[in-house]
Design goal:
The chain has 569 residues and is mainly beta. The protein is globular and about 65 Å long. The chain has four helices and 29 strands. It has helices at 163-169, 351-356, 409-419, 537-540; strands at 3-5, 10-12, 21-29, 35-42, 54-55, 67-69, 78-83, 93-100, 111-118, 121-129, 138-146, 150-159, 368-372, 375-379, 387-389, 394-398, 401-407, 425-431, 434-437, 443-456, 461-465, 469-474, 486-500, 505-508, 513-516, 520-524, 528-533, 550-555, 561-564. A hairpin with a 3-residue loop joins strand 11 (138-146) and strand 12. The strands form five sheets. Strands 15, 17, 18, 20, 21, 22, 23, 24, 26 and 29 form a ten-stranded antiparallel β-sheet that branches. A six-stranded mixed β-sheet has the order 1-10-9-3-7-6, with no helix packed on it. Strands 2-12-11-8-4-5 form a six-stranded antiparallel β-sheet.
């Protein structure tokens, strides 16, 4: 049976198939468009730390052949063989991507899918079309990742750049292409005679593909420079009629008045006296003085003077021009020594926009994305699923978004009044736009649930997907000073946004794990929580106390956790 995925859905691979030697096929079509299908083997930090696990048309397999690109077959644009048992432990995620080779964007595709075949039977398929993209030229289709075994996720996340931008996103380096020298024709290899069994299909471009461009021939070597001729002996300059006065060029060498070459004075000779004698006004050179660069032309007699124009930037004497360095733009601010421009930021003539460019958000599309530690964006157009948020937490929205009131009902109101946990009223966001959420400049943390559960106090919840279910869970013990005996337990498939004061700390649960009840944010649903009181007669006999007499004790099997914040409410 084929399991159909939508964008953002995740599942255990063992729920789809027990096989580990899988066939992954990608089919994507578009009028007049060519696509490159690749696979990235990423580490635990989602970085391409080993270039040998970037599988594409120039590197069709990994060193141990756990990842192999098979080419177009069985109706697929490209296909791969993935042997999960042979994938090294250093590879934590396999990301399958598609990029546009040439002109066009993903909004011009007709349809496409990524499918998983085990033992010749298709077990999973993620289908997509042009309505899910706009200006993207690259898209991450699906991932295999390790989490208590291998899991599969339908991603569908796009990038405006092509394959180079995708490679840089994963931490890889893009090598500059150099024309290789023309290689001699390869000798024919081994081939079985006609009628024999067909060989195992290997990597090959799809039939009808464009032929590779011809290799450019190496340029001929540059001729050696000819030896400089010997300087001729200076000859006396013959007398000549009055020469034509050249046009003065700003910054160029000006010949002496009267034309001709004036030899330097010999040793012991006195310099010639200035024309006109001592005290006479200076005599202008023939043709008049040269105006400085940028000065307006001389106005005729009686006409108003022309306004002075700004002088263009002049080269600094003695400075050397670096080939390939950017030239100064008229009107642009001068570079400040020691301040480096933001990589990838648009160079705007005005200084204000250039400074604010570093705060521009990312362009990739996700259901939930963090703009900064205190601001969260939810893209309702990813899957059309509504979300629930605290009333008044919206700070900005773009596109078609409808905000509605969601009451808790009489039963939920009574539960909230009795336990102190719950949401009497929420804000329900629907539509296809993007909503930005924040609350009191607190730090926000998206927690993705994949069928598991987590317990959290309601005052630490900012928003969550409507697909998640929650209920009030009781904490065992004799009571909490200044708090409640209950918490909310969220479970299902979706994302929960938790807010904290400061950077939180995740602690593994051990038999001796205690935390202040006012600093606890959340804990795993599998952990047992008890109220612990430190009561000692000797301490109680004296007035005053330490203020740390009541804590929460956590118990549970390995793998459970508790989250605390550096702040007490």
């Amino acid at each position: 049976m084929v399991t159909h995925f939508q964008r953002g859905r995740k599942a255990r691979l063992s729920d789809l198939t027990l096989g580990t030697d899988l066939y992954v096929g990608v089919q994507i079509t578009g009028p007049g468009m060519v696509f490159d299908i690749s696979c990235f083997g990423l580490d635990a930090d989602e970085r391409l730390s080993d270039d040998r696990y970037f599988i594409f048309f120039n590197q069709p397999k990994s060193p141990e052949e756990a990842l192999q690109q098979l080419g177009a077959q069985a109706g697929d644009t490209d296909s791969f063989r993935v042997t999960l048992d042979r994938v090294p432990a250093s590879i934590d995620r396999l990301a399958f991507t598609a990029t546009v080779d040439g002109e066009g964007t993903m909004s011009g595709i007709t349809s496409g899918y990524l499918r998983i075949v085990a033992g010749g039977e298709e077990v999973a398929r993620y289908s997509f079309d042009h309505s899910e993209f706009s200006t993207e030229r690259a898209v991450m289709l699906g991932d295999f990742y390790r989490k208590d075994g291998w899991r599969f996720a339908a991603v569908g996340q796009g990038f405006d750049g092509g394959l180079d931008a995708l490679l840089r996103h994963f931490g890889g380096e893009v090598a500059e292409e150099e024309p290789p020298p023309s290689a001699p024709a390869a000798a024919p290899g081994f081939a079985p005679p006609g009628g024999g069994p067909a060989p195992v299909p290997g990597f090959a471009p799809p039939p009808g593909g464009a032929s590779p461009p011809p290799q450019a021939a190496a340029p001929p070597p540059a001729p050696a420079p000819a030896p400089a001729p010997a300087a001729p002996a200076p000859a006396p300059v013959p007398p000549a009629p009055a020469p034509t006065q050249p046009i003065p060029v700003p910054g160029a060498f000006a010949p002496p008045p009267g034309g001709g070459y004036a030899p330097p004075p010999g040793p012991g000779s006195a310099p010639p006296p200035p024309p006109g004698g001592f005290g006479a006004p200076p005599v202008p050179p023939p043709g008049g003085y040269a105006a400085p660069p940028g000065a307006p032309p001389a106005a005729p007699y009686g006409a108003p003077p022309q306004p002075y124009q700004q002088m263009p930037p002049q080269p600094v004497p003695g400075a050397q021009h670096v080939p390939g360095a950017p030239q100064p733009v008229p009107g642009a601010p001068l570079p400040v020594p020691g301040v480096q421009p933001v990589p990838g930021a648009a160079q705007v003539p005005g200084g204000m926009l250039a400074v604010l460019e570093q705060y521009r958000g990312a362009t990739e599309r996700r259901r939930w994305s963090q703009r900064n530690p205190q601001l969260m964006r939810a893209d309702l157009g990813i899957d059309g699923q509504p979300l629930m948020a605290l009333q008044g937490s919206m700070v900005l929205y773009q596109g078609d978004v409808d905000f509605g009131f969601k009451g808790g009902g009489l039963k939920r109101r009574a539960t909230t009044w009795a336990t102190g946990q719950g949401f009497p009223s929420m804000m329900r966001c629907t539509g296809s736009g993007q909503v930005y959420l924040a609350e009191g400049a607190t730090r926000l943390h998206p927690v993705e649930l994949q069928g598991d559960a987590i317990c959290v106090a309601s005052q630490h919840v900012l928003a969550f997907d409507e697909s998640l279910e929650y209920e009030v869970r009781r904490i065992d013990g004799h009571g909490l000073p200044g708090g409640s005996l209950f918490a909310l337990q969220f479970q299902g498939h979706g994302t929960l946004v938790v807010k904290t004061h400061g950077e939180p700390l995740v602690l593994p649960v051990t038999p001796m794990t205690f935390a202040d009840a006012n600093a606890v944010i959340a804990w795993s649903a599998g952990a047992q929580v008890l109220v612990a009181n430190q009561v000692r007669l000797r301490r109680q006999a004296y007035p005053g106390h330490s203020g740390e007499t009541t804590q929460l004790q956590f118990r549970g099997a390995p793998g459970n956790f508790a989250i605390v914040q550096p702040y007490e409410i």
